[in-house]
Fold this protein.
Amino acid sequence: MRIILVDSVHPLLAERLSAAGHEVIAGHHLADAELAKELGPVEGIVVRSRRLSADLMRHARSLQFVARVGSGLENVDRTYCRTKDIVVLNSPEGNRDGVGELCVAQTLALLKHLPRANRQVHEGLWLREENRGTDLCGMTVGIIGYGHMGSAFAEKLSGFGVRILAHDKYRSDFGTDRVEESTLDQLLALSRIISLHLPLSEDTRHYADAEFFNKLGQRAWFLNTSRGPITDTKALLDALDRGTIIGAALDVLEYERADLDGLDPAIDPTTQRRLYAHDRVLLTPHIAGVTHEGKWKMAAVLADKILAAFP
């Protein structure tokens, strides 16, 4: 098969595909107009964060598969792929450990006031009582979306002595001796820490909105490592200002560009400024799954899936 890589990915993927006899073409340096001209004889496309629209994929008249290095598939027009019987693959297994570990780090950083305490000491302040923390042990943690990422967070929490509630609209019978299946209302009523692990779709856009935060049964901490638009940022900030949310950790922002490699300052600049100035929000630049090990694992997992489907 002729397979084109339209994003920069770990070289292991090209090595594995080439070793299996496929022709691998580098296309990550091409703009869409130039890329369209190269797609005619292509049978496979490997993508990371680039947008694969129906208009672009139509140029690949022999296309049999699209393989995404990573988890989310919102950058691929899956409706077009379904109508053309194009196989769509992804590799969430590859970076699940990185995501689960960052969620633990976010949780502890919020509970122990680490960003604020670090900044204060750098400024010459030594405020111990003002930075008295909260123990994770004994808390109830609510995980919304129990796929690869949500279950990875649950696994990493196993030694912390917490109760874990998990809600997944599309899954059932996944409960274990450590994880309790829960309704959304029960999870929101009982959880002190709430973590989102949902794919982005029209059903999940602004999933965490004003109504969501109003359903909380007690003050809680909030995490989002999935996709930015799943959280209504203004509603979250309002909940923070009311004290409903004690602190939030966002690895993804509503204002990320479609390619996930930067922010769009034109999207609701007033709320953006309010977010960046908030001292109880911990922000990171979409790095939960960005680890050295995860980059290799995602390539290895995707190579396995492509070669299994198209030996």
